[in-house]
Write a structure and sequence with these properties.
heterodimer, A: 271 residues, alpha/beta, eight-stranded mixed beta sheet, 8 strands, B: 230 residues, six-stranded mixed beta sheet, five-stranded mixed beta sheet, 2 helices, 12% helix
């Protein structure tokens, strides 16, 4: 049975698009048939992160309006044959989305794919609402800092009230993905600890993605981070998170502070 | 093919059964009596609906047309007559209810009109999930209990007290319908604003020693006091 997963957060810039690409690629690598859908109409980024920005012909809005068929808009990833992308429009804005159109597209995608991953835009208005409307599961990406946590709390409230599942009395299964976690800053008390975040949000933890320069490098070359830097700590964290999403029990590895050898010897803190 | 059996004709079985019926006994003047009946019906409308009623005409001398008229006026009041007693059988026509005799007096169970089931108003709202940021819980009828935390930016408005079995991070406004004895209880106080019956205090004025402890807020005169809960 196809699953619709929404990657949302409320706050902008926390790592939704990065995580959508990473989780989508990880699932496709395992063998699942995955489509990632960009709901950020007007400010699309998923096509850049996936490296497909030069192959976009038709987009989500074209399909919603009936101008193009779904098969014309879907773009296959060049590296993973199970991974597809449905890009958003850059020239329109979120008002062009309709609930009926989105519902129709998601229903059609569910027929051919195992996972439909919706990359939500930031905010709580139309684009975010429609991306979560038909979701079965949700990954709420949160940075361990106060404004992100509060916005995530708001979004969790909306997942429990504004989705089709909530309206039918069922629950959307929710997971927290803590991203941009800096162990050093958390130890110094400059960032919220994982326990603080979970205490406030009261939702199960899917994974902890450490702050990593590999992520910026990967989006610069247009490749999901797990394919571009397979040995990076961020990749390991995303792979663990994906396995947890599939139901496996994986021990949670809290990223620790990395000290260079010289600094360790001399007792200095990493800059 | 089976032979079709001839249906054996049997005499219709008659059985006797006794029922309890209400008896209406009109008295002179009939008009006054009908007015009294109206008053009774006004107090408990529908009392006679569906109940078997017998008309005892032994206290009045009515002609046939008067009896007809009486039955009609009673039917207009939704009282259907099961039978008539205390009257000469020759006065009754075939269209009127039949004559009855041999009725025995018996106690009627206290004729309390059935009140429409009034459900006691629910005086307490119980929420077993955390209240998320941006959500607003308004319950002016009574107490609100939350089994979980109240997120920053959420608000609870209650006519009675507010009980939070978790951390209170948002706004809590108790006793909103003029109830100064309402209180706010929580396991950890990090509230943004507390108000009881209009008197409010913001987080700024919260004593630092109270933070992260179970606390209660209550009104002492016109002053809000926030004290730790033992």
């Amino acid at each position: 049975m196809a699953k619709v997963l929404v990657v949302t957060s409320g706050k902008g810039g926390v790592g939704k698009t990065t995580s959508t690409a990473a989780i989508g690629a990880a699932l496709a690598q395992i063998g699942q048939k995955v489509v990632v859908v960009d709901f950020d109409v007007g400010l699309r980024n998923l096509d850049l992160v996936m490296g497909a920005e030069r192959r976009v012909v038709f987009d989500l809005i074209n399909v919603v309006q009936g101008v193009a068929k779904l098969s014309q808009a879907l773009i296959r990833d060049k590296r993973l044959e199970n991974l597809w992308l449905l890009p958003a429009s850059q020239t329109r804005d979120k008002d062009a989305l309709t609930e009926e159109g989105v519902g129709r597209i998601i229903a059609e995608l569910k027929q051919t794919f195992d996972w439909v991953i919706c990359d939500s835009p930031a905010g709580i208005e139309r684009g975010a609402m429609l991306s979560m409307r038909y979701a079965d599961e949700a990954v709420i990406v949160t940075n361990p800092e106060v404004s992100s946590v509060r916005d995530s709390d708001r979004i969790i409230g909306m997942l429990d009230s504004k989705t089709v599942r909530a309206e039918n009395g069922e629950r959307v299964e929710k997971h927290i993905l803590v991203s941009r976690y800096d162990a050093g800053r958390a130890a110094r008390g400059e960032m919220l600890s994982i326990d603080d975040v979970l205490e406030i949000l009261a939702t199960p933890l899917l994974g902890i993605i450490p702050e990593s320069q590999d992520i910026l490098r990967a989006s610069n070359v247009g490749c999901p981070v797990i394919l571009n830097s397979p040995a990076s700590a961020a990749t390991r964290a995303y792979m663990d998170a994906t396995r947890r999403l599939l139901g496996e029990t994986v021990t949670m590895a809290v990223p620790s502070e990395r000290k260079g050898l010289i600094n360790k010897l001399l007792g200095r803190r990493a800059a | 093919m089976d032979a079709i059996a001839e249906p054996v004709s049997q005499p219709v079985r008659l059985r006797g059964r006794s029922y309890l019926a209400f008896v209406l006994t009109p008295v002179v003047p009939i008009i006054e009596w009908l007015k009294d009946l109206d008053d009774t019906l006004a107090r408990s409308p529908g009392f006679f609906v569906g109940k078997p009623v017998v008309l005892d005409l032994s206290a009045v001398e009515l002609s046939r047309s008067a009896i007809t008229h009486l039955i009609v006026s009673l039917e207009k009041k939704n009282i259907r007559i099961l039978g008539i007693e205390g009257v000469d059988v020759s006065l009754l026509t075939s269209t009127m209810p039949p004559a009855l005799s041999g009725g025995r007096a018996c106690a009627v169970a206290a004729a309390e009109p059935e009140k429409a089931e009034v459900r006691a108003p629910v005086a307490s709202l119980m929420l077993d999930t955390p209240v998320r940021s941006g959500q607003s819980v308004v319950f002016p009828e009574g107490d609100v209990t939350v089994l979980g935390s109240v997120g920053s930016g959420a608000e609870i408005v209650a006519g009675g007290s507010i009980h939070v079995y978790g951390t209170l991070r948002g706004r809590a406004m108790a006793g909103v319908n003029g109830n100064p004895s309402a209180r706010i209880f929580c396991q950890k106080i990090e509230a943004e604003l507390l108000a009881i019956d209009g008197y409010y205090q913001t987080a700024e004025e919260l004593d630092a020693s109270l933070r992260n402890r179970p606390a209660q807020a209550w009104l002492d005169g016109g002053v809000m006091r926030i004290t730790p809960l033992i």
